[in-house]
Structure formats: C-alpha cells, structure tokens
Design goal:
Chain lengths: ~550, ~140
C-alpha cells in the first residue's frame, strides 16, 4: 500500500495515534491549570512523532502520559547501614529507584584497609568490601520490586557479582533483578579517571558483563554510557554528545566481536547525560542523541529491533554549575537544568542538592532537590505533552547543528580507528586525544569566565549576600572509616580461608583465558566473602594496571 | 610528571593526592599559572603525601598546589605539609577544590598556607600563589 500523508490512514500522525492508543496510560486529567484540554503531542499529520524512527521526539509514543520519569536520587555515604537508612527514606519520600554512590576506594577496587584508602572511606559514597556490606546495604529492600542503579566502573563486574550473590541469598533470582550498572569504562580514561586495568583488559570485563546479563538478567541494563562525567570534566555539549555516543558505538562493536547479535544486547544499553545550564542547547543535545543513535544502530550496525534503536537516558543536573557562593541559588539552577532534562524527554533524573559545591548533601538539601522534581512533575503540567519544543525553528536548528558537530567528531574517531569506532576510542585514549580536547574546552570556558564574558551569579556578578554563608553542611567524621575497617577485619577472620584461596585461584585461572566469562568466578568469590580488593588485585596480576601520562 | 617551563620564573608543583580523579580543576589552574608566566609541574593522579613531598623537594619548587575535590582534604592535606617538613623543607602548600569555609581554620593550623575555594577567579589564584611564595623567606 502506498502511504498516504496529509490525513491519510497511514500518516505519521495516525501511526502515532495507533501506537498511543495501544499504550497503557496514567490517570489524567491532562489539561492546563485553567482547564484547556491538552493533546499528548502536537504536530502536522506528516510530521515526526515520538515513538517513530529516528525518535528525535522521544523513544515512546506515549512518553510521560504512560509513566513519568523515574526520580532516581543518587545517594550513599558512610557505612552500608547508613546508606540503607537513606535508601529507605528515599523510598518513603516517593522516590522509586535507588542509585548507589560508592566511595573512592570501592570505585578503584581497594579495600577499606588499604593504605591508599586513608581518609576516603565512606566519604563520597558507601564503602563496600564484601558480601556482608552488600547485605547491609539492601537489608529489608525488595530487590525484585525496586530498580537499583550502581555507579561503578572499573570494579563493575565485581559489584554486579556481589549484587547477584546478595539478591539470590535473599531469595530473589537474578532474572528478576532490574537496574543499571554504569560499567562505562571508556569515559573513565577520557574524563572521570577512575581506572584500574589497561583499556583492552577492562573492555574484556565489559564484554563479560554484557554477555552475562544478556543471557541471564533480562531486566538488567548492562552499561549506562555516560556523558555526564565528560561534561563535568569540561567538554562542550557537542563533545559530550559525540564522545558518549562514540563510546556507545564502541561497546556495540565489542559485543558484536564477541558474537552477540546486536538486537540481543543493544536494547539493554542506556545513556546518562548532563543537564547543564544552557537550557535550549541541552534539549537539542538530547533530541540529537536519540536521532544519531537510531540512525547509526540501524544503518551501521544492522539493528532491526526498535528497542535497539530507541535511545533511553538518565539525566543529572550539572554539578559544575553549582556555586559555593550563595548556595541557595543552586536550587534555581538545578530546577532549570532539571526542566531541560524533562522537556528533552529523559527517562530518569537526579537533581543535585544546593550544598554540593561545599560537601555531600545534607538530608534537607537532598529532600529539596527531590521536591524540585516533584514540582516539575506535579505542578507545572509540562509532562502532559511530549517533546513540547519539537517544531520550534530554533530548537530544530540547534538539534541539527548538534548532530552535525557530533558527526564531525565521529568521522575523526573513525579515522583514528581506521574504520572502527572501538579502535578509534581506544587509540584516542592512548594518545590523550579525548583528554586533551576536554582540557582545552574546560580552559576555554574558564577563560570566558575570567574575561567576564560568562556571568555566574554570585561569583563574578551580583556578589551581595555572599558573606551570609551559614548553610549547615554534612560532616563525615573518620569514625566511619574506623568502623568500616573493624567490620572488614571481622569478616576476614570469620570466613573460610580455604574457600577464599580456591575462589581466587579459579579467578586467576579464568582471567588468563580471555575467552572465559569471568562472571561465574566473581559470583562464587563473592559468596566466599572474598573482598573487592582481593578480586581486583588477583585480576591486576593477570591484566596489569593502567598509568596515565600526566599532561596539562 | 609533566612540566611546562618559562626559565627563571616561579616554580609551582600542582598535585593530586589520594584517589580523587577529578582533574579538571588542577589542569585549569596549571594553565592559568603557566599563562601568568609561572613554571608549572604536574604530578599526575593518585599520588601519596610522600611522593608529592619528594617531588616538591627534588624539583625545588616555590609552592605546592593541591587540588582536592573528594572530601579527604582534612586528612590528606596536612599529611602533605608534614611530609614536606619531614624532609627539612619549608615549601608552602596551597589547597584548592571543594573545601568548605568551615574547614579553613583547622587547615591553617595543619600548616596549609592558603585555601582557594570554588569559583576563585584566575587573578586571585595567581596572586595567592605569588604572595605565598614571597612570604616564604
């Protein structure tokens, strides 16, 4: 049948209507405050619609009419018991997804009693050394009902193994677990710098987690491909977009090399973007990201499943946009950034707390941050209509420009990798290309600020009130560090040493053979109370360690 | 370690100590100082108080600049000062990053010469480094 547009039965509008009618919807009324009824989306009959390739207007036909975004607040500090308490508060306050922040030693695969961990235990997140900590972290939380996101990269496979071990010990089968592992190692070398093993060996662990979850954990998102840290490290919006999607393509190539058909794992990839303060640029970035991903997955990687082509993403407001001066003003910045994420069609959102340029958030500051999302969700009515800015001459032009700039960067990466984005990403890391570009952009932005071209309220303009800085901030004492070390030493003395040795021997043996999937050995080691540090050191014995050449 | 030199100028070692990988600030500050005609040496990530002190003394720098954003400054920054003093050197240490003003007094007691908080403009960074270097002898 020849598609008839302009009102015909197969017009994009009518196709969208059909998909919308088949979607499960939440309760309305969907109208303005004054009672004007609102359609789920607006546009001409032959226009583009959400849920239709290439998805610039959103991955789903019904968008927030089916389900609002997940208010996923990132939390974690001190011991697992402290964080467990915070998790329960988040659930009680109406949050529906948990997000775990680990402390620096855990992120770098070190035990709490490692000399390098001094002063860092439980400080930026929760300390996890063994299965015992994982059990406390999720005590009395039904892991089959809530989704859990774990922000961890170098030791991601280890943490996933411990999570599976904990859930199954508590009676929840791995197939029922829903959540996300960040597991995006490429951006660690490019931006966040929490690396342990060299790039290629790290990518083997990524491959193992992707293959394992594709086979055994259908509800799990194996990689959250993260632009957030690239942006925080100083990139432009276009660089965030391009580097992040290029990393995504690299993981697709990696999994295809491992023999996985693209449609078997691509639906489980998700993204994580920054919401910076330039409102329209951010919205254009999200729209361009969806369009680019759909096109590349279809044209270059041969995806046929819609789920593979539909880019879904988490958003976090920009930590770097927050100021230590007049910190209450950060609530306003965060609200504007969060709104950009929502108008850009994010699937989940973390809003930063006003005190995060000073310290980790207090309970009150974190609550206000969640309340900010709730105001957007329940008071403003902005979620009634999908892609409300689609069709704006300005936003469409900016979306096109973001895409054009990203394509220029992909061409460069493809060239570095001689036709492979995977190789281009690894080469770009090894040659400090990504790191250099990010540092250049960061410096450029800083110079704009120093020249007074970029105004930051309370920092280089409008300083009155800067001295009233009496915000109560969270203090974490070294008691937590001592407590955690004590706990670890008790686990070490209570466990079966022979079982620990066996588990580590097997891990080392499996690590040598790059064809073996390491997940089963890591789960068994977790069950034997092997520590994170012991597993990571054993693998480092085989893989080696990455050292970055310092450049200014 | 990497350096960017302008002969005869002030020498500053900028350092990342501990596990904190946030290197945006340290690189921006390194370039700011360099553009102000100061010779800058960057240690790279994951240093210990000992390695920073050794580098500072070996390179005979005028100032050490620490960049800390993970909250470990109260533990680690005074240890860097101590490690430098244990080597018989009086090289001053400046701290920048996410440091709440409530911590400044205790840091001063721990031997930190100056604290540059979030949002410190370029000219202030350069001025503080020059002032701290000048106060040394």
């Amino acid at each position: 049948m020849i598609p008839r547009h302009n009102g015909g039965v197969n017009s994009p509008r009518q196709q969208w209507q059909k998909a919308f009618d088949e979607s499960r919807l939440r309760e309305g009324p969907f109208q303005t405050l004054s009672g004007i009824p609102l359609e789920p989306v607006y546009g001409p009959d032959d226009g583009e619609y959400p849920g239709q390739y290439p998805y610039a207007r959103g991955p789903y036909a019904s968008m927030y009419r089916s389900k609002l975004w997940t208010m996923r607040m990132f939390a974690g500090f001190g011991t697992a018991i402290d964080t467990n308490r915070r998790f329960k508060e988040i659930i009680k306050a109406g949050g529906d997804g948990l997000s775990t922040a680990f402390d620096m030693p855990t992120l770098l695969g070190l035990d709490s009693d490692d000399p390098m961990a001094l002063g860092e235990v439980g400080r930026c997140g929760v300390a996890i050394d063994t299965l015992a900590d994982m059990r406390d972290l999720f005590a009395d939380i039904d892991l089959g009902r809530i989704t859990t996101s774990m922000t961890i990269n170098s030791p991601a496979a280890v943490m996933l193994a411990m999570f599976v071990a904990q859930a199954e010990t508590a009676g929840v089968p791995r197939a029922n677990l829903g959540g996300t592992l960040q597991n995006d190692i490429l951006k660690e070398y490019q931006a966040q710098k929490e690396f342990v093993f060299p790039p290629r060996q790290s990518m083997r662990l990524v491959r193992d987690t992707v293959a394992f979850t594709a086979a055994e954990m259908p509800r799990w998102h194996s990689i959250s491909i993260s632009g957030y840290h690239i942006r925080e490290a100083g990139s432009t919006a276009a660089e965030e977009l391009a580097f992040t999607l290029a990393n995504g393509f690299a993981y697709v190539e990696l999994a295809r090399q491992a023999g996985l058909p693209v449609d078997s794992f691509a639906p489980r990839l998700s993204f994580f973007f920054n919401a910076h303060i330039d409102f329209f640029e951010e919205i254009a970035k999200y729209r361009a990201a969806r369009r680019i991903w759909a096109r590349w997955l279809k044209d270059r990687y041969g995806a046929t499943s819609e789920r593979s082509m539909q880019l879904r993403f988490h958003t976090q407001t920009a930590g770097v946009s927050l100021t230590a001066q007049q910190p209450e003003v950060n609530i306003v910045r965060t609200a504007i950034e969060a709104l950009a994420g929502v108008l850009g069609g994010t699937q989940s959102l973390h809003t930063n707390s006003m005190d995060e340029a000073l310290a980790l958030p207090t309970e009150k500051a974190a609550r206000i941050a969640l309340r900010t999302q709730q105001v957007i969700a329940y008071e403003t009515n902005v979620a009634h209509v999908a892609d409300p800015l689609g069709g704006s001459h300005f936003v469409e032009a900016l979306t096109d420009e973001m895409e054009r700039r990203a394509e220029e960067i992909f061409a460069k990466i493809d060239e570095m990798g001689r036709g492979s984005i995977l190789e281009g990403c690894i080469t770009g890391i090894e040659e400090n290309w990504f790191q250099g570009r990010i540092a250049d952009s960061a410096y450029e932005l800083e110079q704009n600020f120093n020249r007074g071209e970029r105004i930051v309220v309370g920092v280089n303009r409008f300083l009155e009130g800067n001295d009233d800085d009496d915000l109560a901030i969270l203090k974490i004492t070294n008691e937590d560090e001592a407590k955690q070390k004590q706990r670890l030493s008790k686990v070490r003395s209570d466990r079966n040493d022979a079982a620990v040795r066996d588990a580590l021997d097997r891990l080392a043996k499996d690590a040598v053979d790059s064809e073996v999937n390491l997940m089963p050995a890591l789960i068994d080691a977790s069950l034997a109370y092997v520590t994170v540090g012991e597993m990571m050191n054993t693998m480092a014995g085989v893989f080696g360690r990455h050292v970055e050449v310092p450049t200014i | 370690m990497t350096r960017d030199s302008t002969p005869g100028s002030l020498r500053v070692l900028v350092a990342k100590v501990g596990l904190d990988g946030h290197d945006r600030g340290v690189k921006v500050v390194a370039r700011l100082l360099r553009d102000a005609g100061i010779e800058v040496i960057y240690t790279g990530l994951f240093q210990t108080p000992e390695t920073v002190a050794a580098a500072a003394v070996d390179e005979d720098v005028d100032v050490v600049g620490l960049s800390m954003l993970s909250g470990a400054h109260m533990t680690l920054a005074p240890l860097v000062v101590k490690a430098i003093r244990d080597r018989g050197s009086d090289i001053p240490v400046v701290l920048g990053g996410i440091v709440p003003s409530q911590d400044v007094e205790e840091l001063a007691a721990g031997g930190i010469a100056a604290v540059l908080g979030p949002g410190a403009p370029a000219d202030q960074v350069v001025e503080v480094v020059r002032k701290v270097a000048a106060s040394r002898s």
